[in-house]
Amino acid sequence: MRFTPNRTLIFLAVLISSFFISSAYSQKQQVVDEIIAKVDNYIILESDLAIAYREYLSRGNNKNDASKCNVLEGLVVNKLLLAKAEIDSVVVPDAQVDAQLDSRLNVMINQIGSVEKIEEYYGKSLDEFKVEIRGDIKEQMVMGEMQRTITSDIEVTPREVQKFFKNIPRDSLPFYSTQVQVGQIVKYPEMSREAKASIKARLNGLRERILEGEDFSQIAKLYSQEPGAKQSGGNLGYFKRGQLAPEYEAAALKLKKGEISKPVETDFGFHIIELIDRRGNEFNTRHILIRPSFTKQDMARATNYLDSLRTVILADSISFESAAKEYSDDMNTSSSGGYFLDPESQGTKISVEELEPNVFFTIDTMQIGSITKPITFTKQDGSDAVRILYYKDRIRPHQASLELDYQRIKQAALNKKRSEVLDKWFREAQDEVYITIDEAYQDCQILNN
Question: Where does the PpiC domain start and stop, copy by copy (predicted)?
């Protein structure tokens, strides 16, 4: 049960729902379609509503005409966000879209078991599948960016959080399942000098071929290990300073237009870079990426490093949190002292259901306060790394309270405030674009709410 199950938040739920899964489902299921709504150049099909409504019901919501209207309203708001993003020039770089697509595909591959199983299930190659769902991923990211643009300045004070909580009827307070505080320190394996030299030699060979007249894009499509290279030819599009890896950016900005760098090392691997264009604070590049592959010796060095660090932590020479901030290679958790964060509240208390399965099954065998020995695991990009896990605390199932759940309650109060701002934005923005709803759904009164 959520704090604010009213219709003003329905479109937020639709916006952050898994478009990836919905798109994949729609590839497998065939639905007789017709257009039921238009927002400028964007359309909503009967099948779009059917898929979104099915997902809405799968989250435990009630099945009725009002809820179906709410879901349709959410879809209309989504298309309005896209239309206004076009008007206001709010964009998401193609490189970010490809990275997100690759990340989600890796999750799907891990869940289903292999690329071959995905290709067998959908009856098409992985590249064909990626092309078909990429548009939905891009739309989702643009909508998210537009929403952030609208609500970026919204905050809530402690007094507002307390007032929000006080106004919730006692019998409507949610009951939270088990929560835990779990942290990690991650070490990525490092390549030997010989392996690095081998990759650089390979990239220098590709660079020579391009300098001798071969097409950069074609070479990138054939050899680059960047997820979107087969479609983009390595072109990342325009980025502002500070948005790409520092080493990549520094090398790119030293180049003249059309010049190609020598191999550059970043956290993603090794690149050769061509500067295509510069305009003010923005620059456009394309690159060829070769990712490192690690030997048993590389993994052993990472394991030994963490084993030594664990010994220092257990001796109380440094706290786990300080060690994570200083030594962990995982940027997603190091800033929080190594702790996994709740996706909604961004607090360090996280429901066990939100944990990676491997983390969940590991802490299930641990004592509170203990730290594992180094464990090898596979990252979302498919590469291997090593980590130690710290099981700090466990909070039993309980009814929501300010004392135990302040971050969650704060996030719920913030969501409510954001939804009110977005409602106001929708009322104003709908007069700036052309919106029409099929007569079959006129009773939903979408444009009158």
Answer: 177-277, 280-375
Reply yes or no on whether the pLDDT at 3 is more than 60: no
Average pLDDT over residues 16-29: 46
Residue 303 is assigned to a structural domain of this protein: yes
| Euclidean distance between CA atoms 403 and 399, whole angstroms | 11
Residue 352 lies in a domain: yes
Based on the structure, what is the number of domains in the chain? 3
Contacts of 262 (CB under 8 A, 6+ apart): 204, 207, 272
Query: Edge-to-edge strands of the sheet including 179-187?
Result: 350-351, 179-187, 384-395, 375-378
Most confident of 66-75, 236-245, 388-397: 388-397
CB neighbour list of residue 201: distance below 8 Å, 6 or more residues apart: none
pLDDT at 142: 92
Task: Look up residue 437 and give its two tokens.
Answer: 């709803």
**DSSP letter string over 25-62?**
HHHHS-----EEEEETTEEEEHHHHHHHHHHHHHTT--
Q: Which domain holds residue 70?
A: 7-159+402-448
CA distance 345 to 411: 5
List C-alpha distances in Å: 85 to 48, 71, 272, 276, 433: 21, 21, 33, 26, 12
* β-strands 282-290, 269-279 pairing: antiparallel
Q: Report helix, strand or coil for 294.
A: coil
User: Do 284 and 314 have their domain in common?
Assistant: no
Q: Is residue 171 part of a domain?
A: no
